[in-house]
Structure formats: structure tokens, C-alpha cells
Amino acid sequence: LAERLEDAWKKLRGQDKISETNIKEALKEVRRALLEADVNLQVVKTFISEVEKQALGAEVISGVRPDQQFVKIVYDELVNVMGESNAPLAQADTPPTVILMAGLQGTGKTTATAKLALYLRKEKRSCLMVATDIYRPAAIDQLITLGQQIDVPVFELGKDVNPVEIAKQGVAKAREMGVDTVIIDTAGRLQIDPEMMAELAQIKATVQPHDTLLVVDAMTGQEAATLTRTFHEEIGITGAIVTKMDGDSRGGAALSVRCISGQPIKFIGVGEKVEALQPFYPDRMASRILNMGDVVTLVEKAQEEIDLSDAMAMQEKILEARFDFNDFLKQMRLLKNMGSLAGVMKLIPGMNKISGDVLQKGETQLKQTEAMINSMTKEERGNPDLLAKSPSRRRRIAQGSGHSEAEVSKLIADFTRMRAMMKQMGMGGGMPGMPGMPG
Ligand code: GDP
Ligand code: MG
């Protein structure tokens, strides 16, 4: 018991720090989550050791376990590392803005070209799409068909002209037409190929794009890292589009792309349709990669709602048995702020099995309890013993709150019992035996 008391105090004084031992398991979990999300191993290692360094010694928020808090720190850092949300496409001072698409075959370059064109059109920026994939049969037709769908013109010169030449003439055409943006779709190979790289580099040198976007399939997995490195070193990218995020992939490729190139992910593809393009939100991607959203939410809520100094004052009161109905009300409101009881319980491992009925009942009881406390005078709230002694006070509260005298008596008895218990435990929270709580 004394030990628990001491623990409680340590936590309160903020001496409970994140240490290598108290986050060991969480570290393992995070590493596993990242690898499962297909983040490149090297990226995982670098990322984790950075975060661990940052986290060690951090004070633990009261009411949260150090390992849970660590996951939150990882999450925050992940969001941070992932870069800007909604990074805009380049826009040239004098049109046309030139966007060059790069990537392996089948990643979704041609589709993304049309998606971007549609997106820009909605932003009232006119487009021309340029078909330079002369290798894959029907690649040009594919772009033409997409162009018809979204009502955006396509520039092509058939399969017998050199892609560099097509790109060059495409940009000239865009200038002539006076369109705002020209998007150059390119050919890809199944694997990184020196010939393809050379051709792409040549196109880039010729058209001098304002944006060079690497299109990466979210399913690429570990390979995304090598891929990004090669493209970035040899071509130089200014952003990326991660496609096929509508699949099961957890999106680890996004982290690899970002970490290795340092360039923003500008959009994600979420389907085969031309409308299936979304801006990139680092927080959503971080949640998806970590797949530990629940813990993160819990810690966030705790962080938002628990005012440390308030909690400390409360603990002191508990230890000195000065805890009164005012404090109780505060605790109840805290609980409310943290969302419905059911919502909070669901976030706690092992608690999610409590049936909805029981929780519903708990919430109703909490409301009734609050009504009774609201009917108490300030003096009574501050000095619960007054109520224990006076039946007439209890009667008045019963009438005021619309509850029976028996209910009021029970609340006061429960409260007194709880206060004694809390004092004994030396712990706040008031969860066990808290009046109005099921169980
Ligand atoms: P490219 O070889 O890089 O030009 O790739 P394509 O644009 O031809 O796309 C290859 C395949 O992926 C096609 O069947 C597309 O419909 C599909 N695709 C492209 N983007 C997405 C996406 O975001 N989600 C899904 N589910 N499929 C996509
Ligand atoms: Mg293509």
C-alpha cells in the first residue's frame, strides 16, 4: 500500500519519466507496426532511434502509461516527419506550368495524369496532357480515352517519334494553346532500368518541369525506398503521388518516400476512377501506418483534458480526505469531457467487452448523480458531512433534483465510502466504487 502511495506521488510530481525499460514493449510494437506497414527497414531503424532519443526522459502525463504515451510521441513524430498536408502543385509565374510524371510501369502514372488534370480543371486551371509512352501498346489510346472522359485535350505524335521530342513539342503546343498546365505522362518499366532513367532525365532536361512527381504504388512495400532513392538521385523529384491507397496497404511506402527524398507527398490515389484523388494528410497516413489509433486517441484525450495542476490539487485533497462534492463534480465533468463513458471504455484494452447496456446504465446514473449534486448548496458541496447529518437537507435535494430521498441518501453514503477508500488507496481517478458507476 505504501508503495502504491509512493508510486502515485512520483507520478504526480512528474518524476515518472519515459525510460528505456518502461517503453521496451511499446518500442517493439511500434517497430512491428511500421514493418508490417511495409516501411523500409532502414527507415524504421532511423526513425525509431530518433524518436526514442527524444522520448527518453519525457514526463509522463498523469493517467497514462509511459508506453502509451510513447506511442503518442511516435505518432506525433510520424505526422511531423510525413511533412505538409495538402502540399500544392507547382504553379509557374508564366504559364504553362510543366508537370512531369515519373515512376515504374503499372504504378498508375497515366491514371494519375488524368486525375491531376481533372483536379486542376476543377481549380479552373486548364490542362494539356502529353502522351510520351510509345512502348506499351495502347498506352497512348489509354490517355486519349481518359482525356475524352474528363474533357481535357491530349497531345500525341504516335509511337514512332522519340519521347523527348514529343514532350518538347507538347510543351510548345501548350504554350501555343495558352493552357495553364501541361502534364507529361511518361513510360515506365517493370523495374528500374538505365535506359528508362536516361530517357526520363533527357525529357526533364528538355522541358524543365516545375514539378516532377514520382508515382508510387502503395503496395510497393520495402522496395519503395530503393525506388525513391534511384529516381531522386538520377532525375530529382519535387513530390510524389502514392497510388492504390484504396487497397489493404497500410501505406508504409509513403513514409519511405518522404524520408528518403525529403519531398512532399502531394496526393494519394484511392481508386481507378479519375475522381479518386485526394490531398495528402499526414495525420491520417500516420494513423494508418501505426494502426494504433486507439491508444493515440486515448492519450490525446488525456492530454487535452487533464490539467496537471488540477489533478495534483485533487490528489492532495484525496490524501487529506478533503475531497468534496465540488471535486467530485469536476471529476465527473472530466469524464464527460473525455467523451461518453462508452467511448472512453472502448479505448481501454480489455474494457471493450463491457456490454453496451451496462455502460448506458452507467451514463444515466452519472447524469442523475450530477443532478443531485447540482441541487446542493455551495456549503453542502464543500462539506458532505452536513448532508450525512441532516435529513431535511437531503429531503430538499431530493425534491430539487427530482429524485427520491433514498437515492440522495445512497449517493451520500456511496460518496463517503468512496472517499474513505480513495484515501486508503492514495489514488485518484475515483474509478472503483465511484457513485454512479456500474459495478
Ligand atoms: P502506369 O503504367 O503507371 O501508367 O499505370 P496506369 O495508370 O495504367 O495504371 C495501372 C493500373 O492501376 C490500372 O488498372 C489502373 O486502373 C490502376 N490504378 C491506378 N491508380 C489506382 C488507384 O489509386 N487505385 C486503384 N485501385 N487502382 C489504380
Ligand atoms: Mg501509363
UniProtKB/TrEMBL annotation:
Q: Which enzyme class?
A: hydrolase
Q: Where is the signal peptide?
A: none
| InterPro entries with a match to the protein in the record | AAA+_ATPase, P-loop_NTPase, Signal_recog_part_SRP54_M_sf, Signal_recog_particl_SRP54_hlx, Signal_recog_particle_SRP54_M, SRP, SRP54, SRP54_GTPase_dom
Query: Can you tell which superkingdom this protein's organism belongs to?
Result: Bacteria
Q: Where is this region: Disordered?
A: 379-409
For this protein, what reaction is catalysed?
Answer: GTP + H2O = GDP + phosphate + H(+)
Checking Pfam families in the record gives: SRP54, SRP54_N, SRP_SPB
Q: Where does GTP bind?
A: 103-110, 185-189, 243-246
Keyword Lipid metabolism attributed: no
**SUPFAM superfamilies for the chain:** P-loop containing nucleoside triphosphate hydrolases, Signal peptide-binding domain
EC numbers = 3.6.5.4
Assigned keywords, A-Z: Cytoplasm, GTP-binding, Hydrolase, Nucleotide-binding, Ribonucleoprotein, RNA-binding, Signal recognition particle
The record's subcellular location field reads: Cytoplasm
Q: Which residues form the SRP54-type proteins GTP-binding domain?
A: 264-277
SMART domains per the UniProt record, alphabetical:
AAA, SRP54, SRP54_N
- Database matches in PROSITE patterns: SRP54
User: Could you describe the subunit structure of this protein?
Assistant: Part of the signal recognition particle protein translocation system, which is composed of SRP and FtsY.
Task of the protein: Involved in targeting and insertion of nascent membrane proteins into the cytoplasmic membrane. Binds to the hydrophobic signal sequence of the ribosome-nascent chain (RNC) as it emerges from the ribosomes. The SRP-RNC complex is then targeted to the cytoplasmic membrane where it interacts with the SRP receptor FtsY.
What's noted about domains in the record?
A: Composed of three domains: the N-terminal N domain, which is responsible for interactions with the ribosome, the central G domain, which binds GTP, and the C-terminal M domain, which binds the RNA and the signal sequence of the RNC.
Q: What NCBIfam families does its record include?
A: ffh (TIGR00959)
Q: Which family does it belong to?
A: Belongs to the GTP-binding SRP family. SRP54 subfamily.
What name does UniProt use for this protein?
Signal recognition particle protein
Q: Which organism does this record belong to?
A: Spirulina subsalsa FACHB-351
